[in-house]
Amino acid sequence: MAQAKKLVEAITPMEEDFSRWYTDVVKKAELIEYSSVKGCMILRPNGYAIWENVQKELDRMFKETGVENVYMPMFIPESLLQKEKDHVEGFAPEVAWVTQGGLEPLAERLCVRPTSETLFCDFYSNIIQSYRDLPKLYNQWCSVVRWEKTTRPFLRSTEFLWQEGHTAHATAEDAEERTIQMLDIYAEFCEKFLAIPMVKGKKTDKEKFAGAESTYTIEALMHDGKALQSGTSHNFGDGFAKAFDIQYTDKENKLQYVHQTSWGLSTRIIGAIIMVHGDDSGLVLPPMIAPVQVMVVPIAQHKEGVLEAAAKIKAGLAGVRVALDDSDKSPGWKFSEQEIRGIPLRIEIGPKDMEAGQAVIVRRDTREKITVSLDSIAAKTLEVMETMQNEMLERARKHRDEHTFSAVTYEEFKDTIANRPGFVKAMWCGEETCELKIKEDTTATSRCMPFEEENISDTCVCCGKPAKTMVYWGKAY
Amino acid sequence: MAQAKKLVEAITPMEEDFSRWYTDVVKKAELIEYSSVKGCMILRPNGYAIWENVQKELDRMFKETGVENVYMPMFIPESLLQKEKDHVEGFAPEVAWVTQGGLEPLAERLCVRPTSETLFCDFYSNIIQSYRDLPKLYNQWCSVVRWEKTTRPFLRSTEFLWQEGHTAHATAEDAEERTIQMLDIYAEFCEKFLAIPMVKGKKTDKEKFAGAESTYTIEALMHDGKALQSGTSHNFGDGFAKAFDIQYTDKENKLQYVHQTSWGLSTRIIGAIIMVHGDDSGLVLPPMIAPVQVMVVPIAQHKEGVLEAAAKIKAGLAGVRVALDDSDKSPGWKFSEQEIRGIPLRIEIGPKDMEAGQAVIVRRDTREKITVSLDSIAAKTLEVMETMQNEMLERARKHRDEHTFSAVTYEEFKDTIANRPGFVKAMWCGEETCELKIKEDTTATSRCMPFEEENISDTCVCCGKPAKTMVYWGKAY
Ligand SMILES: [Zn+2]
Ligand SMILES: [Zn+2]
Asked: How sure is the predictor about A86, in pLDDT bands with cuts at 50, 70 and 90?
């Protein structure tokens, strides 16, 4: 137990220092290891396996809507990146440049993709001719690079993994519909699999993607009351199509520009899982996304029959991602490891349990202990996992709602941002000057103009002029 | 039919120009599109879906042996690449260099990974302390970059997709065992899923991987008689461990160097599928790897009930990757498309078939037409796919064996290489001078020293000195 205690003590309590708590969990759960490459992280098996599960479910949801996967080059010639003015202005300051290939300097430098709109546009201009070629619904899973000054595991790193979908449509309506459809898929995925409730909304012009006509976002609230942008979906209109000359002949044989979208979700989402569900003992993974859902831990495993009984439990859990810790560590040490790694359920079985024909299921989130007879353990395990998944979502929703405030006056607004971590709902006139002032005064930014609008007052919380819309504001990662 | 004919005519016949046939198939089957980035290709949905199936099966086979997936940075600092002498000499001439990040020049340049041994070694030196930490069995799926002067779709491109496994073991025996185990997995995968028989063997010192103690390979024979190295597995001994100081304390509390392996298989394997199985009508995919296994094509689909009958066939093929071509193209056009894309089976159904309560299954490889009653179509489809898969493997094996020759004298050897495309088995003294002479005289290279040795003669085919081993020689991609 001394050793077990040491493992746990290594995690800084959340209340003491949330930021250190976060990096402790990331390290101790062996999700990430820092590399010798500045700003780049190594995704270790425990971390990568979460991403594999995210990929598996999202990929299936994408394909159900007709999306197909492709792979585009990781390099973008400088001239290609420059074709869309807003886009290059947004990304050029933060890209990595390849200037030498083999033993020779390159005639034109190549950037390592920060995102692939320009490559997809170049591709689409070659393969789209007729309305029969539309829509194109392509996606890729890859890594992208953005040269960041300060980095944090999962939240901000020079290289990160993501998927980027890029679609081309015949009409503006089709593009807008696809933009919203993919945002809905992200929100549904996060709620169902990650137990994270999302606020869906539209970004202000200031916060939208470089080159987009409009950007939609899903925003989550972390345990410390800060917001995390968790996925975005952009409608490009025909701006990129005009810059890259992507035209098709319609049914009346007239040339038309396509309308495009893109949408992305990255390993950042793993940061959200950690900061929404984690506690002072480590990670807490929602059962539906956990690489290992159940860890069977034998107690007094040197006693006759214990290991066999534990193995039998494991074998009986068909369809469950289950592992058995039969190492020579102490049970206390094994408990700590299972807790740090966030494995949703632990099943303990020892000589006394065997005598009574039972085992003990322990929930990671509530630590509730449930004694179960051995012949009903498979059904009970599934039931407890389902309950845990649902309760984790409800707990996160309750936390989010309890940390969502409204403000009518600017004094109220500043006071709330300063003293009550969370979202602040407040009205806005639509002017960037107010967004800038709010950011300067409070460090909070506009998170989104939510789909579910409310009329909190008639005037902008900042300038007092007539309000155009309600905005979710907050400090953000 | 005029249009259908046009589609087919676009493929250059194999006998006329194998190389043009290959690129025609790649383009017409829509596997790849050239990009604006020199030497980089776009993997289109039809091509990427094959890779997804390769990934799915191989990844499962890896994990069954205890392998875990990780993700390492795509950049390698120059100083890290230089730590192992042979390795940097092998790769430095063909890497891409990043010299600028954001708006500033980098203090140390970074290469885009051509392979990740150095990164894994750096990682292992941080996380391996004790014999309890061994073995480490890590793999990653990613893209790598090698600056190539001449490129060909799938076979050689500046960027390509692959998996690279990197393992660390306590003993030399464990490392050697893992090296062979992974080679066996590659060979088994290629035979079972891709219907491609492999020659397994060891590379000569000249042909081995930069920094390896020994390299093992699987070699396939393409339809034109050229060899294709299809996957490699390397035993590094403790060379990298010494260069990167990867040590562990053993059970006797003594410091020991680890022994390492690496093994990789890339999108190059798609080139092998094309060149082993394809014909003058296009691609021919083995059913087990085909993204779409069956295309249902309605005949006279405007006639009452035809589309419904076709849809019913599709719905009845549970567990089969099946699509229905209900577009307004002619049946001939649809046939051509299905053939070019290499979809293993076509099921035709028209008014006459419906009257007779039957449909027609057409095999892509043999074009055999099989009339089947509608109530047995699901079972028959599975049966025909299995037969086709087996016969494709046997046909490829027969072709390989019929194009594998022996040579005892150098005249015989040169004559065979010049006039009979295929493998040539011949004895070798073990000296690199003979390998170099053979390459200069014939352009053939040593493919491998096969696990299944034969004693063809007692003297080296080139210099006449005593022979040490038999070698498979051949011209290669
Ligand atoms: Zn205002
Ligand atoms: Zn010789």
From this structure: confident
Return the CATH number at B69: 3.30.930.10
When comparing pLDDT for A4 and A410, which is higher?
A410
Tell me the pTM.
0.96
pLDDT digits 0-9 by tens, A67-82: 999 999 999 999 999 9
Alpha helices in A265-419 (DSSP H): 268-277, 306-316, 331-340, 351-356, 377-402, 410-419
| Structural domain range at position B419 | 404-474
Q: Are A233 and A183 in contact (CB under 8 A)?
A: yes
Q: Would you say residue B285 lies in a domain?
A: no
**Is A376 at the interface with chain B, CB within 8 A?**
no
Run of H or E including B271: helix B268-277
Please say if the pLDDT value at position B253 is more than 80.
yes
The pLDDT of B127-153, averaged and rounded, is 96
Percent of chain A at pLDDT exceeding 70: 98
pLDDT at A453 > cutoff 80: yes
At B38, the pLDDT band (50, 70, 90 cuts) reads confident
Q: Is the pLDDT of residue A4 over 90?
A: no
Q: Indicate whether B301 and B185 sit together in one domain.
A: no
Q: Of the candidates B450, B456, B463, which has an alpha carbon nearest to the alpha carbon of residue B427?
A: B456
Mean pLDDT over all residues of chain B?
96
For A365, the token pair is: 């989130």
Q: Say if residue A112's pLDDT is above 60.
A: yes
Residue B147 lies in a domain: yes
Cβ under 8 Å to A: B residues 18-37: 33, 35-37
In A65-124, the residues whose Cβ lies within 8 Å of chain B are 68-77, 80, 93-103, 109-110, 112, 119, 122-123
Helix, strand, coil % in chain A, rounded to nearest 5: 40, 30, 30
* Interface contact B73-A159, CB threshold 8 A: yes
CATH code of the domain covering residue A424: 3.30.110.30
Residues B188 and B322 in one domain: no
DSSP A320: S
Q: Give the three-class secondary structure for A409.
A: coil
Q: Using a CB-CB distance cutoff of 8 angstroms, which residues of chain B are in contact with residue A103? A: 93
Cis ω before A135 (30° cut-off from 0): yes
> Contact B161/A71, CB-based, under 8 Å?
yes
- Whether A214 and A123 map to the same domain: the answer is yes
**Same domain membership, residue A443 and residue A350:** no
Domain count, chain B: 3
Q: Residue A112 in contact with residue B98, Cβ under 8 Å?
A: yes
pLDDT over threshold 90, residue A354:
yes
B296-305 pLDDT, tens digit per residue, is 999 999 999 9
Ligand in nearest proximity to the CA of A462: 1
Q: Which of A42, A118, A124 to mutate to test the interface with B (most CBs of B within 10 A)?
A: A42
Q: Does residue A289 fall inside a structural domain?
A: no
| β-strand pairing of B423-428 with B159-169 | unpaired
Largest Cα span, chain A: 81
Domain end, chosen from A248, A277, A306, is at A277
Last residue of one domain, picked from the residues A387, A417, A435: A387
**Interface membership of B160 toward A (CB under 8 Å):** no
For residue B78, being part of any structural domain is answered with yes
DSSP state of B330: -
**Distance of alpha carbon B241 from alpha carbon B213, whole angstroms:** 12
Helix (H) or strand (E) holding A444: none
Question: pLDDT grade, residue B5 (50/70/90)?
Answer: low
Taking Cα atoms as reference points, which of B41, B35, B78, B31 lies closest to residue B159? Answer: B41
Helix ranges, B78-171 (H): 78-81, 85-91, 117-127
Question: B130 CA to chain A: closest CA distance, Å?
Answer: 15
Mean pLDDT of A120-125: 97
